[in-house]
Amino acid sequence: xxxxxxxxxxxxxxxxxxxxxxxxxxxxxxxxxxxxxxxxxxxxxxxxxxxxxxxxxxxxxxxxxxxxxxxxxxxxxxxxxxxxxxxxxxxxxxxxxxxxxxxxxxxxxxxxxxxxxxxxxxxxxxxxxxxxxxxxxxxxxxxxxxxxxxxxx
Length: 153
What we know:
By secondary structure, the protein is mainly beta.
């Protein structure tokens, strides 16, 4: 994730783009029991196995990139400024998927939406307007967002 390949500040959504380094491993301990979100349960004091996040978050290493988000257009989807998105270019974009798109040369992150035969890029914030994809614009889906990584606020 160290190799920065593009630095952009367009549409207040994509700040930087990074390649996926598939040859690295970071194995962290995985506690052997599930954590309840309700009432506390007795703690178990052992580690069951090691967990490599690459195995769980990256399905296609050669087609996976990381994008740093800037702006507020996707906050209702849980995507905030400063988040890192994992983007898989091997996945097929489809209705209701969150995608990275190139619109007239600028990168943006939006939800892909089809309505009455027309395609739209839809923000997840009422302060922003959907964008209809038309034949007269330069448009390409660059990849499908699979995960968002962010600090707890």
